[in-house]
Amino acid sequence: MPIAKTNLWRVLALSLGLLSLTWSARADDRPVKVFILAGQSNMQGQAVADLTGKDYNGGKGTLNEVYGPTGLARRFPELRREGSTWSSRPDVWIRYQPENQALKKGPLGLGFTGYGGKNHFGPELGFGQVMGDHLTNQVLLIKTAWGGKSLYRDFRPPSSGGTVGPYYTKMIAEVREALAKLPTDFPGYQGQGFELAGLVWYQGWNDGVDPRQAIPEYEENLVHLIQDVRKDLQAPGLPVVIGELTGPWVQAPKEWQTLRKAQASVASRPEFRDSVRFVETHDFVRKPEDSPNPGHGHHEFGNAETYLLVGEALARGMISLEK
């Protein structure tokens, strides 16, 4: 059984000059652990890394501003290993195909979002840091997330009846493509095979604004999505983490509370008891005035601390499902 690396191991590696061992791509006979990160714009990635000026509230709440003062540097020391340069991790690969843009692939770092450049990130950054520390296998994150998409219509799974959502179909197709192109997309892959190790679902805003149709169906649609993904990817029992809808409406009207309860109810079903976990994220919301995008409540105000903590919590939820 693989032994999880810990912060102690990183300290020892630094002191012994072995840091390169923990940061090289892992080429051995252990299968690549593959995680699917699915959802809409909050999974797509809206956290601001380093933009400033009046359009970004003077840089408040960006990764540059919060990394040290909030304690994130202690929790995620790998993000900035030398000077002021944000690092990437060769032991965690990521593949993301934004809509109408070029494919993004490579070692985990900033920029795997729908924006150009490397000024933004999503929950994948915190998630990948935690999973990369925990696992001795090479890790691959396949991101299938597009802004403004509902579960009710866009991601609608086959078992829900009606028209299958085009983004459900797109999600399955992109996962299959990523796995098929693993040898060409990532030259560090040595033919060791792969294991579908988990699905993270972080979504809900578009359904939350449709209380008459989408919210009443949300729980059943999410149950069907989990079952259909497992079937279509031939991964029965695939571990699934459901990220709670974040955002400023933590104490919002009952419609939003109903959606959150539906998300939690899926994980509490007897058939999902040991394979699906609901992860609370409401405590990670930061004040709009302390964030780079004060008017973007639907994007968690673009606050970097929020997104890193969400990613970390989603990863801890996934680890808790390990057999």
How would you sum up this structure in a few lines?
This protein is an alpha/beta fold and 323 residues long. It has 12 helices and 9 strands.
What does this structure look like?
This protein is of the alpha/beta class. It has one domain (7-319): SGNH hydrolase (Rossmann fold, 3-Layer(aba) Sandwich). Helix content is 34%, strand content 15%. It is built from 12 helices and 9 strands. The strands form 2 sheets. A 7-stranded mixed β-sheet has the order 4-3-6-1-7-8-9, with helices on both faces. A two-stranded antiparallel sheet has the order 2-5. Strand 8, helix 11 and strand 9 form a beta-alpha-beta unit. Helix 6 (124-134) runs parallel beside helix 12 and helix 10 (214-232) packs parallel to helix 11. It is globular. The termini are close together. Residues 1-23 have low confidence and may be disordered.
